[in-house]
Amino acid sequence: MRYLLDTNAVIALLGNHPLVRQRVRRVSQLDIVVSALVMHELYFGAYMGVRTMETLRNYGQLRFAVLPFTLRTRNGLPKSAPTCNDAILPSAPTTSSSRARPLLAI
Asked: d(Cα 85, Cα 65) in Å, to the nearest integer?
């Protein structure tokens, strides 16, 4: 079974919430994914916060696959939504400049 973590779950995990950490440890890291939208929310929050670099270093510790945001269309309507099986491993965010970085490098 694969698990899709939402933003609150990732924040709780990074904040060492005991119940969340316990549940994540019970499953294989390969069975946990986060969506590209969750990653966007996390990076947006990091760049809007006061401890940007510290927060980005914490995000760098995440080793979960990222479920890409894609919308396959036919006649303007969604044809199919991505599934957890579509997840790909994320690349580490670049740190070449202080503010102008991609939100997600996949």
From this structure: 10
